[in-house]
Amino acid sequence: MTDSSPYTIVVGVDGSPDSKLALHWAADEARLRNGQLRLVTAWNKPPLEWYPEVLETAVGGLAVAPAPKEDAGKLNAEALKFAADNGAAATGQVVHNHSPAAAIVDAAKEADLIVVGARGYGGFEGLHLGAVSHQVVNHARCPVLIFRPKSAKDSRHNG
After folding, report:
1. pTM for this predicted structure
2. pLDDT 10s digits, 13-70
3. What is the Cα–Cα distance from 103 to 42, expressed in whole angstroms?
4. pLDDT tens across 103-158, in order?
5. Can you spell out the DSSP letters for 85-147?
6. Distance (Å, whole) CA 6 – CA 152
7. H or E element, residue 33
8. Which residues contact 118 (CB under 8 A, 6 or more apart)?
């Protein structure tokens, strides 16, 4: 970062309750610092999923499930809208990467701060720190804030 560039906060966005808490905090911080957010949503398509998933509906019809890239784009767009609605300047980035942590760290090469939720959707229920946040802390070139709710109840009821 140069002295003339705005304070930049990279936020990992996956739609999980902890991710939403992290986004809310980061939007407030960016607004207070007259800075900007860089919202990163990573997606990965498993190797055998070269076609859209077709699901049978309850009434016997067929429906095509959205592709991971489309889901990631929607999550990122929702996060951008939240930032704009809350007065924070933001850009969004949807990245195809096998590692969400690598995508976040890469997007933060020139950033001042990374903000991620403690846990996403994967892994084991009892973990206090998920794999992505753990990897980001170990590989980031700037400070990292890991946002964790006060209790599991706070995380489940966050919207």
Report:
1. 0.80
2. 999 889 999 999 999 999 999 999 999 999 886 655 544 555 555 565 655 555 778 8
3. 7
4. 999 999 999 999 999 876 665 566 567 789 999 999 999 999 998 877 655 444 44
5. HTT-EEEEEEEE-S-HHHHHHHHTTT-SEEEEES--SSS-TT-SS-HHHHHHHHH-SS-EEEE
6. 35
7. none
8. 18, 128, 129, 130, 133, 146, 147, 148, 149
Rounded to whole angstroms, what are the CA distances from 122 to 87, 108, 131? Answer: 31, 23, 9
Burial of 40 (0-12, 13-18, 19+ CB in 10 A): buried
Contact 69, 43 (CB under 8 A): yes
